[in-house]
Amino acid sequence: MSVREVLRDRGAATYLGGVLVSGFGDSAMMLVAGVWVKTLTGSSSLAAAVNACVWAPTLVGPLLGTAADRFRRRPLLVAVNAALAVLLPALLAVRAGGDVWLLLVVLTAVGVGSVLCDAAQAGLVVSAVPAELRGDFNGLRMTVNEGMKLLAPLAGAGLFVRWGGGAVAVLDAVTFALSALAFAALRVREQPPAPTAGSWREQTSAGVRALRGNPLLVRLVGAGGVALLLSGISSAATYALVDAGLHRPPAFVGVIYAVQGTGSVVAGIAAGAVMRRMPERVFAAAGLLLFSAGAGMRVVPSLPTVLGGAVAIGIGLPWVIVAAFTAVQQHTEPALVGRVAAAAGTVVFGPTALATGLGAGLVALADYRIQLAGAAVAGALTAWLLLLRRPRTGRRDGNLPAPRGEETGAKSPTPPGR
User: Fold this and answer.
1) CATH assignment, 204-399
2) What class, spelled out in words, does domain 1-185 have in CATH?
3) How many CA atoms lie within 13 A of 226 on its CB side?
4) How many Cβ atoms are within 10 Å of 28's Cβ, its own excluded?
């Protein structure tokens, strides 16, 4: 019923439409970009640099979040998506190995735009989506993103084989344009940005302090960062698992990721309903325990067990992330949401690059089963620490705002504008 309520809400449905079309283009482009670079240069290191370019801007997330908080969120989303729609066709000029630098520059710009959009969207959700539906909304957003990761790469691969990487760039540009139109059609009453006071450094620090000053957010966001770090380490062992454990060809990795993605789609649909039945930290701990169970199951060289583990990981990881970012929206002063969300994004997604390299090194040094078992134990330990003691936030440890008059480390969010 809650899912239907979200889709019946015009603001939430329009917002999801923008996320859907943009996610489709991005997922197609991310798959093709690495293949494109590898095809043009023959270099695996340059192909790997594609992901580094897209993820690097998360390291300056708090600064970009400060920029997002200086503007009204809806016009900023329209402007960023429109700018990327204009920029991406420049990749039609990439025809040889010497042109790859242009591709890396454009993808870095896409990464910057993604961080800006994530920060602006976090603030816009507070205005566009009723508080009681935000858990469901964030879950559906996760479902949309994961669903696109299942479908879009096939479309991107087909376009690349038939017409080359330029065609995929044009597809991504079209989806950015459609996303800009969707956000332009969003009808929401936003409060004007708070008057800026102090330097950029001081304003950025305000967002970091707001995050650090709320014990519940610190624990949930920290748990999200640990979950993504462990996920990267676990994922790095997948090729060794398929080869030495299941005795399957490397392409079978795609099957495992497809099964995991299916679990994430289910997780997003169920997230809001589950969150209403338990505190946020318990919900995040449940996700960590599911991830741990999934990583542990992958130690067993049995196809049904490994696929069952992929489903558990697919459900568990999104729950940790949804819990963290829903809490940011619920427990942060609206004027600071962009900065706090961007700082949280740096903590949660920043470890991804480190995890990939660390996991690759561990695979070379030790049996992949040790790596998976270590990730499982670390995930369970993190869940235990998350449940160990209730953080003193002054507000209820739940996913809805506290009643009027309760004290909290951050001001209670204002009612969403309708």
Assistant:
1) 1.20.1250.20
2) mainly alpha
3) 27
4) 27
